[in-house]
Protein backbone atom coordinates (compact mmCIF):
# COMPACT_ATOMS: atom_id res chain seq x y z
CA UNK A 1 0.00 0.00 0.00
CA UNK A 2 1.30 3.48 -0.81
CA UNK A 3 2.30 5.28 2.36
CA UNK A 4 2.41 8.84 1.01
CA UNK A 5 5.97 9.37 2.24
CA UNK A 6 6.73 12.07 -0.33
CA UNK A 7 6.35 15.74 0.51
CA UNK A 8 4.24 18.13 -1.59
CA UNK A 9 7.44 19.40 -3.23
CA UNK A 10 8.04 15.91 -4.61
CA UNK A 11 4.64 15.74 -6.30
CA UNK A 12 3.94 16.68 -9.91
CA UNK A 13 0.96 18.74 -11.04
CA UNK A 14 -0.10 16.16 -13.67
CA UNK A 15 -2.07 18.86 -15.48
CA UNK A 16 -4.18 17.90 -18.51
CA UNK A 17 -3.87 20.76 -20.99
CA UNK A 18 -5.88 19.24 -23.83
CA UNK A 19 -8.74 21.72 -24.12
CA UNK A 20 -11.21 19.40 -25.83
CA UNK A 21 -10.91 16.73 -23.12
CA UNK A 22 -11.43 19.41 -20.45
CA UNK A 23 -14.49 20.76 -22.30
CA UNK A 24 -15.93 17.24 -22.38
CA UNK A 25 -15.17 16.83 -18.66
CA UNK A 26 -16.92 20.12 -17.90
CA UNK A 27 -19.96 18.99 -19.89
CA UNK A 28 -20.10 15.73 -17.95
CA UNK A 29 -19.84 17.53 -14.60
CA UNK A 30 -22.60 19.95 -15.60
CA UNK A 31 -24.88 17.12 -16.71
CA UNK A 32 -24.32 15.13 -13.51
CA UNK A 33 -24.78 18.10 -11.18
CA UNK A 34 -27.71 19.43 -13.19
CA UNK A 35 -27.64 22.59 -15.26
CA UNK A 36 -30.42 24.20 -13.22
CA UNK A 37 -28.50 23.62 -9.99
CA UNK A 38 -25.43 25.34 -11.43
CA UNK A 39 -27.37 28.27 -12.88
CA UNK A 40 -29.04 28.87 -9.50
CA UNK A 41 -25.77 28.79 -7.52
CA UNK A 42 -24.32 31.98 -6.08
CA UNK A 43 -20.73 30.80 -5.62
CA UNK A 44 -18.84 27.82 -7.07
CA UNK A 45 -15.38 26.51 -6.19
CA UNK A 46 -13.16 24.23 -8.25
CA UNK A 47 -10.29 22.66 -6.31
CA UNK A 48 -7.26 21.75 -8.40
CA UNK A 49 -8.33 23.66 -11.51
CA UNK A 50 -5.33 22.72 -13.68
CA UNK A 51 -5.86 24.30 -17.10
CA UNK A 52 -8.80 26.38 -15.84
CA UNK A 53 -11.14 25.20 -18.62
CA UNK A 54 -13.70 23.64 -16.27
CA UNK A 55 -13.84 26.69 -13.96
CA UNK A 56 -14.29 28.99 -16.96
CA UNK A 57 -17.02 26.76 -18.42
CA UNK A 58 -18.94 26.74 -15.13
CA UNK A 59 -18.69 30.52 -14.93
CA UNK A 60 -19.86 30.93 -18.51
CA UNK A 61 -22.95 28.87 -17.76
CA UNK A 62 -23.93 31.43 -15.13
CA UNK A 63 -23.66 34.29 -17.65
CA UNK A 64 -22.00 36.57 -15.12
CA UNK A 65 -24.40 35.83 -12.26
CA UNK A 66 -22.19 33.23 -10.54
CA UNK A 67 -19.04 34.01 -8.59
CA UNK A 68 -16.59 31.23 -9.50
CA UNK A 69 -13.31 30.62 -7.66
CA UNK A 70 -10.55 28.13 -8.50
CA UNK A 71 -7.52 27.02 -6.49
CA UNK A 72 -4.37 25.06 -7.28
CA UNK A 73 -0.84 24.62 -5.94
CA UNK A 74 0.63 25.77 -9.28
CA UNK A 75 -0.60 28.10 -12.00
CA UNK A 76 -0.73 26.03 -15.19
CA UNK A 77 -3.81 27.66 -16.66
CA UNK A 78 -4.49 28.00 -20.35
CA UNK A 79 -7.96 29.49 -19.73
CA UNK A 80 -8.16 32.44 -17.33
CA UNK A 81 -11.46 34.16 -18.11
CA UNK A 82 -14.58 34.53 -15.96
CA UNK A 83 -13.30 33.24 -12.59
CA UNK A 84 -10.97 34.14 -9.72
CA UNK A 85 -7.81 32.10 -9.22
CA UNK A 86 -6.01 31.50 -5.90
CA UNK A 87 -2.67 29.79 -5.29
CA UNK A 88 -2.71 27.50 -2.23
CA UNK A 89 0.08 25.66 -0.48
CA UNK A 90 -1.83 22.85 1.22
CA UNK A 91 -5.20 21.14 1.47
CA UNK A 92 -6.49 24.05 3.57
CA UNK A 93 -8.83 26.38 1.66
CA UNK A 94 -8.71 30.21 2.05
CA UNK A 95 -12.47 30.68 2.30
CA UNK A 96 -15.08 31.17 5.02
CA UNK A 97 -17.30 28.39 6.32
CA UNK A 98 -20.34 27.64 4.17
CA UNK A 99 -19.18 29.93 1.38
CA UNK A 100 -19.97 27.81 -1.70
CA UNK A 101 -23.13 26.29 -3.11
CA UNK A 102 -21.13 23.94 -5.36
CA UNK A 103 -17.62 22.53 -4.89
CA UNK A 104 -15.84 20.49 -7.56
CA UNK A 105 -12.89 18.23 -6.74
CA UNK A 106 -12.09 16.09 -9.76
CA UNK A 107 -8.95 13.89 -9.76
CA UNK A 108 -7.46 15.95 -6.91
CA UNK A 109 -7.56 13.90 -3.72
CA UNK A 110 -4.85 11.50 -4.92
CA UNK A 111 -2.45 14.45 -5.22
CA UNK A 112 -2.87 16.18 -1.86
CA UNK A 113 -0.56 13.90 0.11
CA UNK A 114 -0.85 11.38 2.90
CA UNK A 115 -4.12 9.77 4.01
CA UNK A 116 -4.21 12.35 6.78
CA UNK A 117 -3.97 15.18 4.24
CA UNK A 118 -6.65 13.50 2.13
CA UNK A 119 -8.92 13.54 5.18
CA UNK A 120 -8.19 17.27 5.58
CA UNK A 121 -9.11 17.78 1.91
CA UNK A 122 -12.55 16.25 2.53
CA UNK A 123 -13.07 18.11 5.79
CA UNK A 124 -12.26 21.38 4.02
CA UNK A 125 -14.85 20.60 1.34
CA UNK A 126 -17.40 20.00 4.10
CA UNK A 127 -16.39 23.22 5.86
CA UNK A 128 -16.72 25.58 2.88
CA UNK A 129 -19.89 23.93 1.53
CA UNK A 130 -23.16 25.69 2.27
CA UNK A 131 -25.87 23.88 4.22
CA UNK A 132 -27.84 23.14 1.06
CA UNK A 133 -24.78 22.84 -1.16
CA UNK A 134 -23.46 19.90 -3.17
CA UNK A 135 -19.93 18.77 -3.97
CA UNK A 136 -18.76 16.73 -6.96
CA UNK A 137 -15.92 14.38 -6.05
CA UNK A 138 -13.98 12.28 -8.58
CA UNK A 139 -11.57 9.69 -7.14
CA UNK A 140 -9.33 7.46 -9.30
CA UNK A 141 -9.67 3.84 -8.23
CA UNK A 142 -6.57 2.29 -6.68
CA UNK A 143 -7.49 -1.04 -8.28
CA UNK A 144 -8.07 0.19 -11.83
CA UNK A 145 -6.14 -1.75 -14.43
CA UNK A 146 -4.13 1.18 -15.84
CA UNK A 147 -2.97 4.03 -13.59
CA UNK A 148 -4.22 7.31 -15.18
CA UNK A 149 -1.28 9.66 -14.52
CA UNK A 150 1.61 7.48 -15.67
CA UNK A 151 -0.38 5.17 -17.99
CA UNK A 152 1.24 2.08 -16.48
CA UNK A 153 -0.70 -1.16 -15.82
CA UNK A 154 -1.26 -2.01 -12.15
CA UNK A 155 1.04 0.81 -10.92
CA UNK A 156 -1.17 1.79 -7.97
CA UNK A 157 -1.57 -1.82 -6.83
CA UNK A 158 1.96 -2.12 -5.44
CA UNK A 159 3.65 -0.95 -2.22
CA UNK A 160 5.32 2.45 -2.52
CA UNK A 161 8.83 1.10 -2.99
CA UNK A 162 7.80 -1.18 -5.87
CA UNK A 163 5.70 1.55 -7.50
CA UNK A 164 8.73 3.87 -7.37
CA UNK A 165 10.91 1.25 -9.07
CA UNK A 166 8.24 0.66 -11.70
CA UNK A 167 8.08 4.40 -12.53
CA UNK A 168 11.89 4.60 -12.75
CA UNK A 169 12.07 1.44 -14.87
CA UNK A 170 9.51 2.90 -17.29
CA UNK A 171 11.52 6.12 -17.64
CA UNK A 172 8.54 8.24 -16.61
CA UNK A 173 9.90 9.72 -13.40
CA UNK A 174 11.82 9.06 -10.22
CA UNK A 175 8.92 7.96 -8.00
CA UNK A 176 5.17 7.43 -7.84
CA UNK A 177 3.65 10.54 -6.30
CA UNK A 178 -0.10 9.77 -6.26
CA UNK A 179 -2.28 7.92 -3.76
CA UNK A 180 -5.50 6.67 -5.40
CA UNK A 181 -8.16 5.20 -3.14
CA UNK A 182 -10.12 2.00 -3.06
CA UNK A 183 -13.89 2.32 -2.82
CA UNK A 184 -13.87 1.21 0.81
CA UNK A 185 -11.14 3.66 1.79
CA UNK A 186 -12.96 6.49 0.03
CA UNK A 187 -16.17 5.71 1.90
CA UNK A 188 -14.30 5.60 5.22
CA UNK A 189 -12.75 9.02 4.57
CA UNK A 190 -16.11 10.48 3.59
CA UNK A 191 -17.68 9.17 6.79
CA UNK A 192 -14.89 10.78 8.81
CA UNK A 193 -15.52 14.10 7.09
CA UNK A 194 -19.18 14.04 8.16
CA UNK A 195 -20.38 14.13 4.58
CA UNK A 196 -23.40 12.35 3.20
CA UNK A 197 -22.39 10.74 -0.08
CA UNK A 198 -24.21 9.32 -3.06
CA UNK A 199 -22.21 7.07 -5.34
CA UNK A 200 -23.15 8.04 -8.92
CA UNK A 201 -20.32 6.14 -10.63
CA UNK A 202 -22.62 4.17 -12.93
CA UNK A 203 -24.50 7.29 -14.00
CA UNK A 204 -21.14 8.99 -14.58
CA UNK A 205 -19.98 6.06 -16.70
CA UNK A 206 -23.06 6.33 -18.90
CA UNK A 207 -22.63 10.10 -19.15
CA UNK A 208 -18.96 9.71 -20.09
CA UNK A 209 -19.86 7.31 -22.90
CA UNK A 210 -22.58 9.65 -24.16
CA UNK A 211 -20.34 12.74 -24.11
CA UNK A 212 -17.00 11.27 -25.19
CA UNK A 213 -18.15 8.41 -27.48
CA UNK A 214 -21.38 9.66 -29.07
CA UNK A 215 -20.80 7.73 -32.31
CA UNK A 216 -19.60 4.50 -30.70
CA UNK A 217 -21.79 1.43 -31.24
CA UNK A 218 -20.39 -0.08 -28.04
CA UNK A 219 -21.30 3.04 -26.05
CA UNK A 220 -24.84 3.01 -27.43
CA UNK A 221 -25.15 -0.69 -26.67
CA UNK A 222 -24.08 -0.18 -23.05
CA UNK A 223 -26.26 2.87 -22.48
CA UNK A 224 -29.35 1.44 -24.15
CA UNK A 225 -29.26 -2.18 -23.07
CA UNK A 226 -26.86 -2.85 -20.18
CA UNK A 227 -28.67 -2.72 -16.80
CA UNK A 228 -27.03 -1.12 -13.78
CA UNK A 229 -26.70 -4.46 -11.99
CA UNK A 230 -24.53 -5.74 -14.84
CA UNK A 231 -22.33 -2.63 -14.90
CA UNK A 232 -22.03 -2.79 -11.11
CA UNK A 233 -20.13 -6.08 -11.45
CA UNK A 234 -17.22 -3.97 -12.74
CA UNK A 235 -17.19 -1.52 -9.83
CA UNK A 236 -14.10 -3.07 -8.17
CA UNK A 237 -11.96 -2.13 -11.19
CA UNK A 238 -13.94 0.90 -12.40
CA UNK A 239 -11.43 3.59 -13.49
CA UNK A 240 -12.91 6.33 -11.30
CA UNK A 241 -15.53 6.68 -8.57
CA UNK A 242 -17.83 9.68 -8.64
CA UNK A 243 -19.71 10.90 -5.56
CA UNK A 244 -22.15 13.73 -4.92
CA UNK A 245 -21.61 15.03 -1.40
CA UNK A 246 -23.69 17.10 0.98
CA UNK A 247 -23.47 18.12 4.60
CA UNK A 248 -24.88 15.74 7.17
CA UNK A 249 -28.02 17.27 8.63
CA UNK A 250 -28.54 17.30 12.38
TrEMBL record:
Name the residues that span the membrane: 229-246
Question: One MF term from GO for this chain?
Answer: methyltransferase activity
Q: Where is the Methyltransferase type domain?
A: 45-136
Alphabetical keyword list? Membrane, Methyltransferase, S-adenosyl-L-methionine, Transferase, Transmembrane, Transmembrane helix
Entries under InterPro entries matching the protein: Methyltransf_11, SAM-dependent_MTases_sf
Domain of life where this protein originates: Bacteria
Its BP terms in the Gene Ontology are:
methylation
Pfam families documented for this protein: Methyltransf_11 (PF08241)
The protein's name: Class I SAM-dependent methyltransferase
- Species name for this entry? Luteimonas galliterrae
Amino acid sequence: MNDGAYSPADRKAHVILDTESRVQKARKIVNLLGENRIRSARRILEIGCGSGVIASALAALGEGRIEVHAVDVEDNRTETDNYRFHLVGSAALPFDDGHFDIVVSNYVIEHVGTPEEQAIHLREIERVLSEAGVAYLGIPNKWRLVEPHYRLPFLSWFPQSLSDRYVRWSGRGTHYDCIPLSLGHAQDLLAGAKLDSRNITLAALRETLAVEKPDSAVARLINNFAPDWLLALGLPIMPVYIFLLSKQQA
